[in-house]
Amino acid sequence: MNFIPFDLVIVIALLQFTNIQPNNEVISDQLKIAFEKEKTADVIVTFKLRPSEILSKISQQTKSVTDRGGKLRILSDELESLAKSSQVNILKKLKEKNFASRIRSLWITNQVSIDGASLDLVTSIAALTEVLKIDKIYSFKLEPVQDKNKDDNPVEPHNNKVAYNDSISDKEITQASVYSWAVWKIQAPKVWEMGYDGQGVVVGIIDSGISLTHEVVYDSFMGTDEYGWFDPNKMGEVPRDITGHGTACLGHMTGKYGMGVAPNAKWMACNCVDNGWRYRTDWVVECFQFMLCPTDHMGNNKNCSRAPRVISNSYYTVPGESSEFFREITKVLVETDIHYVFCIGNVGSACNTTGSPGNFEEFIGVGLTTIYDEYQTFSSAGPDPTGKLIKPDICAPAHMVMTAHYEFGNDFIDIATGCSLATPIVGGVIALMVQKNPKLSQGSVKKILFNSTTLAVIDEPKICGDTPHDQIPNNRIGWGVVNALKAIRNVPEP
Ligand SMILES: *[C@@H]1O[C@H](CO)[C@@H](O)[C@H](O)[C@H]1NC(C)=O
Ligand SMILES: *[C@@H]1O[C@H](CO)[C@@H](O)[C@H](O)[C@H]1NC(C)=O
Ligand SMILES: *[C@@H]1O[C@H](CO)[C@@H](O)[C@H](O)[C@H]1NC(C)=O
Ligand SMILES: *[C@@H]1O[C@H](CO)[C@@H](O)[C@H](O)[C@H]1NC(C)=O
């Protein structure tokens, strides 16, 4: 007798009950199962016309356009018009049904996200010939910043720089007092002395939001009127941070008082995290749309010339989790002159544990090293799941670093660890590089960064993917530890 899995029994029972054709391939099995438990679901509708099909036509169009805002505008205008034409019928249908919950049209992926859709609605949308599939909206878990008890801190202050000064109160912050060893370690202050401190560069961060009241990040906010903040969840005007993760990460990129690598850069931020510390994939898509062509906080009046030069992304889907939605966004993101850094994951030391999309060829995947330039054992190791790519690409020191704590007034700084914090350090270095030469392409930033590293020690017996520890790059530290001074020296004058 054949064994029928329990989930399938539910699906079969449900299909009989609701009249979805069992062979309806438009509606995903996961969504069918969701409707067994709930009357409504948050769903995402994908259309047959894929944005990737028109990208080469768009790049022909933008070839002769010289200003970056103009290029980005053509890209977004064309994709928006593709989305508009595919989405006419569905929007009409939703209007007819007086559907009141939230509906978002996503142009970067040609999708529509609908909160609280009923099975009846989903079934009628599935009947539209232009619809490719309907899925349940997926969320993936945020890796929390690890808070370590300061007393357990095995890291000695390096070269007499104070790693953490317990007697500092909120009122007494000075550059010297919060000098981050990580910033010192990658030689960023030497680059500031050369005149590159992020001035004139805008950086973006997609995360849990920003706690605007934190002094380390307050002054360098673009401002809501300047399109510095977008929150697909609440659509609020003032930046907020749900978990503290975003503020902690941003501090390493642009923080004042010696905490961040590019302290004079301006930042803009987008929240894609829900109240359960989970990244909602449709909000991630909205955040990338906002970054490519920034809008006001209601999502209107886009102005693509305000796009940041680098976007730091301290999140990843763990091995085995679907990252397909990233593949779609990636095709569009590589058409821009924005640089993208992603955290490679905190799930090593086993091989083949890299997260997506930091393990995509197109992006810079960042791993974690210590104050002594050692591979940190829980930093995810390569190769990528196909076995073809060496990952991570590069590392940054963020093991027990001083980090902006989000509850200002309670604790100004904290000691934390993780590739979440390593990633914005690399993002900050890129901000310095594009200040020196704004014309650097994605390819040349990678080439220069990877060729400007310090070697790290790997105290792990296991070799991952045939790349011995003394071979550079290898699957534990990539090309090595990022170094701001070497990188800036290798950046050609524009
Ligand atoms: C810690 O900060 C206090 C107040 O700013 C200062 O007086 C003290 O010297 C600092 N301690 C160290 C070890 O730097
Ligand atoms: C877009 O933003 C830039 C500043 O980055 C500003 O100079 C320009 O006037 C804005 N364009 C419009 C149409 O508002
Ligand atoms: C890596 O792990 C995934 C499962 O997470 C597996 O499908 C894949 O084949 C593995 N790749 C290599 C190169 O071992
Ligand atoms: C790497 O940098 C060195 C100088 O530090 C330079 O001579 C070499 O050409 C660079 N290689 C690449 C591939 O950029």
Write the layout of secondary structure elements.
Blueprint (H helix, E strand, L loop, with lengths): L5 H13 L10 H9 L2 E8 L7 H8 L5 H19 L1 H9 L6 E4 L4 E8 H8 L4 E6 L2 E3 L4 E2 L33 H5 L2 H6 L8 E6 L7 H4 L10 E2 L14 H10 L11 E6 L6 E3 H12 L17 E4 L10 H10 L5 E5 L20 E6 L24 E4 L3 E4 L8 E5 L1 H18 L5 H9 L2 E2 L26 E2 L1 H7 L4
Helix pairs in contact: 1-2, 3-4, 10-13
The site of one 2-acetamido-2-deoxy-beta-D-glucopyranose has 6 residues, from loops.
Keywords: Hydrolase, Protease, Serine protease, Signal
Pfam family, one: Peptidase_S8
Family: Belongs to the peptidase S8 family.
Question: How would you describe the overall organization of this protein?
Answer:
GO terms for molecular function: serine-type endopeptidase activity. The active site is at residues 207, 245, 420. Belongs to the peptidase S8 family. With 494 residues, the protein is α/β, with parallel strands linked by helices. The chain folds into 2 domains: 17-137, no CATH class; 146-490, Rossmann fold, CATH 3.40.50. The protein is 30% helix and 16% strand. The protein contains 15 helices and 18 strands. Strands 8-9-7-11-12-13-14 form a 7-stranded parallel beta sheet, sandwiched between helices. A 4-stranded antiparallel beta sheet has the order 2-3-1-4, with helices on both faces. Strands 6-16-15 form a 3-stranded antiparallel beta sheet, covered by helices on one side. The longest helix has 19 residues, at 68-86. It is globular and about 60 Å long. Mean pLDDT is 87; it is low at 1-17 and 145-176. It binds 2-acetamido-2-deoxy-beta-D-glucopyranose (4 copies). The site of one 2-acetamido-2-deoxy-beta-D-glucopyranose has 6 residues, from loops.
